[in-house]
Design brief:
Layout (H helix, E strand, L loop, with lengths): L6 E5 L4 H12 L3 E6 L2 H13 L3 E6 L5 H15 L4 E4 L14 H26 L4 E7 L7 E2 L5 E2 L7 E7 L9
Parallel strand pairs: 1-2, 1-4, 2-3, 4-5
Antiparallel strand pairs: 5-8, 6-7
């Protein structure tokens, strides 16, 4: 009997690190929920996942909207089953001198890059805590120096990382920073 394919959710999956992460998981046969706002990029990521003989579900989502994130999580579990890994990768930035940025630009960066991670983490925890199983990964340069492995141990990676992982449950294995 073969093991069930992992179900992975990736925010910011339409480009960059998120899209590359989707391809990596697809090579291992995962079923992947692809979340982002840009449908063209999401559809391209879906084709790449399917070209690698894996399954993908495109869910256009603004991670700055808690209801949309929760709805996306429910839709993915309805289609693929229990979420095993949730990767918060979506972010936005404004490249300009600070004195030229508007309050609305600061607000959007905060909503996507901070609250998007909060809403994704809450949606994942809502599903993972009752099962006492799952992995949540936070991708971001501001989170570069700590990895949490199984409750409550904290490990310091030997090299700086851009990945922060929360892993819990009875079947924890060593988590390495990337």
């Amino acid at each position: 009997m073969s093991a069930r394919a992992e179900v992975v959710v990736i925010t910011g999956a339409s480009a960059g690190v998120g899209r590359a992460t989707a391809r990596k998981f697809a090579r291992h046969g995962a079923r992947i929920g692809l979340l982002a706002r840009g449908t063209d990029g999401l559809e391209a990521a879906r084709r790449e996942v399917e070209d690698l003989r894996s399954k993908a579900l495109v869910v256009p989502t603004d991670v700055a909207n808690a209801d949309q994130v929760e709805s996306a999580a429910a839709q993915i579990e309805a289609e693929f089953g229990q979420i095993d890994i949730w990767i918060n990768n979506a972010m936005t930035s404004v490249f300009s001198p600070i004195k030229q940025m508007t309050a609305a630009e600061f607000q959007r960066v905060t909503e996507v890059t901070y609250l998007g991670y909060v809403y994704g983490t809450l949606a994942a925890l809502k599903r993972m805590l009752p099962r006492d199983r799952g992995v949540i990964v936070q991708v971001g340069s501001a989170l570069a120096y700590r990895v949490f492995r199984c409750r409550p141990r904290i490990a310091q990676p030997s090299t700086p990382s851009r990945v922060f992982a929360i892993r819990f449950g009875a079947n924890c294995s060593t988590t390495t920073a990337t």
